[in-house]
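Inputs:
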Amino acid sequence: MGFLDNSGDIILDAVLTDTGRMRLAKGDGSFKITKFAFGDDEINYNLYDKNHESGSAYYDIQILQSPVLEAFTNNASSMKSKLISIPRTNLLYLPVMKLQTNDNNYKKDQITSTGNYLVSVDDDSNDFDSSTKKLVAEDGVLNGVSGGGNSKIQVQQGLDTSDISSTFIIDPDLNETQFILEIDNRLGMISHGGTTAAVSFIDDDNLASYFLSSNPYVEISEGAGKDTAIDVLADTYSMAIAGPRGNVLEFQIKASLDLNSSTALFTKLGSTYLINGTSFYYIDTTVRVTGATTGYRLDIPVRFVKKV
Amino acid sequence: MATTFKTLLNNDVTSTRTLLHEAIPLTGTIVSGTYLDSDGAEENIKNYAHGMFQSVYDYPYLSSSANHIFDLTVGYSDTSPLSASAETQNAKKINIYNQMAQTLVGYNDSGEIREFDRDGDFSGGTKMDSVFFINFARLLTKDEIKKGTFQLTLNVSGAYDEPTHDLTLYDTNAQNGYRVNSPAGEYGILYINSGSNGTPENQTGAGLIYYQAGIAVITSSIWDHTNAEQYSRDLGHSFSPTTGSNYFGSRAAAPHNDIYENFYDSLTSGSISGSCNGIRNRIHNIQFNNTTELNSTIYFCRANHNEFNYSSNPTYVADSKIQVKQTSLDNPVSYITTVGLYSSDNELLAVAKLSEPLKKDPTNELTLRVRLDY
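Outputs:
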């Protein structure tokens, strides 16, 4: 996409997304715009210079000069970061989401250190060397066959700052009670303990969205009989958040039947590499986690692997 | 409660209808004589094996850059004096006339196909029983031709290779007076040399222009040198082709030039494409304005002073601390570049981009007007 002409009046370039056109074509009334959000995808707030020598009028001069791209029609490519409405103006900190990778059951790939979570897609891959090498027994490998097992992905939310004690409770209006997970439905499904979650919808790009707000996926930070968030969470997990903690999201991934039974998607979307000297197909993808309250987004790298 | 979405209320959404017009000029040089190949054939003219009509492109039609601009064909009624079984493509010319009449004029109360009427009054008056048709592509006419803007300039004198004397047909004042008794929508009457807003010099129509269908129907009498209703002679243009004068033909080199003594000769002894070649060579200019009907829904996306002042942009915080604030007393600031319009299940249905970032803080309120056209 080109940049929009920013030499004159401010203009607004609007397009229907591919999903919008698809729903319009269905003619079943599913094309109904009911709400809006504002985004700031192009903005780099690191350019906000609070110490500009020319004064406050120049703090955001570089931000205001940011060129803006024409609208993407792909629904999955726009509105990556949304603006948030919070009536209070005195907030100095906002919660973020971080992966908890300290505990053994929550680590990323410990075998090849690719920085991904590995998901094995069939039994042959789980037990790829009958002598000693069992993939699912390794840290950072999720059992994509059962969608259960010990390895999990955990996302913690809270104020990641040491300026505020972790004994403080995060403001209730900033605590995420619902998480939106997006995953390529051709590759896998969100699960926990071997049970797959109910998918909310699948868009035209095969991107499945899950709205998760209850156990076992979301663990509430303030448990019954507990005084503070740290009581219930820190007793159970290592903490990735330095300051006050919000709720915790935990999930696993079950591989799709296509990946389990066929190599077609691996040859089309992926490649091969070696794990401990054995060749594996792989597909790299991301699972996107978005907080329904704050809109904060975390992209989690995932690698599906299948023994060649 | 922190939120990222805001619900659109009834007074935030409205719909409008807008008519857009574009000027469409078609010069005669596009229509004939510009794209000749080494064999003398015109590369922007497509003829078909069935020979029922001819397509005109703005560039050699085998190129992917070519745009279809109009089709041309001729026809006459089976009641026309021109109709005779011995004439070339007689049945096809009658079929064309009947097909177009079915679509544009319809049927009488006995179920018989009506003939094209010169003034649109089917109860009487002169019928146009031999005509040529210019069917404009939807690419040019869009939703309809704007009434009162159509002009067709034809050469009426001189030999086919040296045409002179222009005669222009206008749908004079059609924006204030047009006919609605066609099954194909509204139509106007084409008058000669009247000026688009003036009084017709010749009160008898020489053709019809169907605005929504994008079809011009012109009587063959426009080039008739023998008929009492010969228009150009009425207006003082003396063309008097005689036998062997080569009045009607194409600029394409032989054997593609199809030369005839006059238009009637081409209608009887020539093929449809042969007549079309001659017509193209006599077209000096065509121009009209098209109309596109835009139905729009406008969404007023309002950001009140206490809304959308924070961001979930990963660069908005460093160690959870808001980058644009030094103390908690500072106002939060955010910058809007994008408006997303969502369904109730959070699917992004439309997206709008601002040409430059808009600053949003608690001291201002913004209303962004997003218009979706259908």
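Remarks. Residues 19-292 of chain B form one domain. Chain B touches chain A through 73 residues (CB under 8 Å).
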